[in-house]
Amino acid sequence: MEKQQSKKPLIRFPELKNAWEHKRLNELLSEVKKRNEDLKYGKDEVLSVSGELGIVNQIEHLGRSYAGVSVHNYHIVEVDDIVYTKSPLKANPFGIIKLNKGKAGIVSTLYAVYKVNQQTAYGPFIDNYFSLDANTNRYLRPLVRKGAKNTLQVTNEEAISAEIFAPAIPEQKRIASFFTVLDKKIAELKQKKNLLEQYKKGVMQKLFSQELRFKDENGKEFPKWEKKKLGDVGDFIGGGTPSTQNSDYWNGDIPWLSSSDLSDENIYQINSTRFITKEAVSKSATRLVPKKSILIVSRVGVGKVAVNEVELCTSQDFTNLIPKSDNYLFMAYLIKLQTHKLLAFNQGTSIKGFVKSDLEDLQLSIPSIKEQNKIANFLVTLDKKISRTENQIQQTQQYKKGLLQNMFI
Q1: 31 vs 54, 143, 329, 371, CA distance in Å?
Q2: Residue 4 maps to a domain
Q3: What pTM was estimated for this model as a whole?
Q4: Which CATH number does the domain housing residue 78 bear?
Q5: Quick check: 211 pLDDT over 90?
Q6: Which residues contact 105 (CB under 8 A, 6 or more apart)?
């Protein structure tokens, strides 16, 4: 393992002065070899190890059990045990190391299970140490051999044979307690976002089914909703891809979108990563889509919907709607809610999707413009709350990551 120059972290509780020491992981952990021979745990208690979620029930995480015919030879994992997953992940090519904070269960023999030595280590400290990809990769890289088909070859004993820097147990507990508070804050924000999204989903269904109606400024009912074909609501404009061989078409200032630049859920989230020139627009099949239009992915990525606040271009996988007089935000929410109808067209063989005429013939119930405005304003307010909460989650996660990088050696 790479040697660190400093024996003290950059950020530390001020009253703690002792230097951190190199400690072999086998001084802090010992292998658990207990198997599920008496079948105390069934297939519904098999655990999976996730880089993001940690150790979780496999059925709850993946929707089904992937256990073999028999689980009698599986390793038993108690609460507060450490599990090493010998499976490569994109961010962790040598596997991941996690603490079991949930329920006891079993894991396949592809995992290694360790008990924390209470005299030398505190489990949550080790879990936080290896929550940093850089720490995990730096520790495991010298120990793990890559086999055929990218399999990881390392014995359970070898996996705990290298060293990490660690302080005395009191400092380990202080650090772990600090990050527990941060993790609780992140969990609360995620729960808040989830509840807001559930509320939005429920209220949208009631609004667009007319089970829930707004009233006008005088407290009176708005007019009945009218059935209209989408083709009568606005005009459609497609897209195209300028030649990637012509450098004069790219690196301009006009955003050009493919379906991957749109979110599956958020109609405001557009990740513009490519830009084209005015010459590309004039000499290729792509066309300018005016701002306040509705971007509809009709082929690859079919069903994604977004709104644009700037003039842009899209690939041929889009059929974009330019509303004539309706509230474009309202129409975007309405179309997004009708995604199941769009997906039902599913024309084509290798590439599923729908064509312009499918959209033109799509019948929708549409309220008066004043009621559209009320509905759109209400949903925009909800989306802003969801976006603010998501930003808080990201900021707190970044804050945590920065502290992890500076509170460990």
Answers
A1: 19, 16, 58, 65
A2: no
A3: 0.84
A4: 3.90.220.20
A5: yes
A6: 41, 45, 46, 47, 57, 76, 77
